[in-house]
Predict the 3D structure of the following.
Amino acid sequence: MALEKLTSANFNEKVSSNEIVVLDFWAEWCGPCKQFGPIFEKVASEYPDILFGKVNTEEEQELAGMFQIRSIPTVAIMREGIIVFMQPGLIPEEGLKDLIRQVKELDMDEVRKEIEKQQQAAQNA
């Protein structure tokens, strides 16, 4: 699977067909994005079972808006279509690997229960 350029046209198909998706929101003019790119690509090569998607925020403003991207680079990790992690800034290689390990260990039934609890609390507020 490795590294793919994600666009509005292919995003839903790619995300729905992969259990874990790691996203890098970036732009060509962004210095920290250029520093993070090689880290993201190296880690992607070590996890062939995970989709690593690069989203150019200049070209894909709709996707950037959907994820409410305010600064770049921003890394978002989805599992089973649910955003389980999102953080702006450059993440070191070992940090990114540790995040992936944690996402793999998540109990998604518990995650869904927690989301349901939060939604019910918001409705009752």
The beta strands are 3-5, 20-26, 51-56, 74-79, 82-88. The domain at 3-124 is CATH 3.40.30.10 (Glutaredoxin).
